[in-house]
Amino acid sequence: MAERDLNKDVDAIKADLDALRKDFSSVVETLKDTAKSRAGSELDALQKRMNQIAADVQSSGREGLRAVEGQIGEKPLVSVAVAFAVGLIIGKLFDRR
């Protein structure tokens, strides 16, 4: 009789461990799905932010280019002289190597 009760208890423990394994597996899968979803959301937000920064940089670059073009248009001789001087300096720096 005691052996039969012991076998029932062992079987009950095995069933409980099996149920616990299944529950634990379910929890792990849920955590994985949640992490994937959250990571996807964070990646989307990061992508949007990077696109906004790229657009801002591009806009600033265009504005700077327009400003330089305006300066060149207003003072073309000075611009040519400055470009010549910069080219001369860069040429001298490369000659030293």
Task: Characterise the protein shown here.
It is built from two helices and no strands. The protein has helices at 2-74, 76-95. The protein has one domain. The N and C termini lie far apart (98 Å). By secondary structure, it is an all-alpha fold.
Indicate the topology.
Layout: H1 2-74, H2 76-95
Q: What's the tally of helices?
A: 2
Structural class call reads mainly alpha
User: Helical proportion?
Assistant: over 70%
Quaternary: single chain
The gross shape turns out to be: rod-shaped
Order of helices and strands: HH
- Radius of gyration, in Å, reads 36 Å
Q: β content, as a range? A: under 5%
Mean pLDDT: 90
Number of domains: 1
Count the E strands.
Answer: 0
Largest sheet: none
Separation of the first and last Cα atoms:
98 Å
Uncertain spans, ≥5 residues at pLDDT below 50?
none
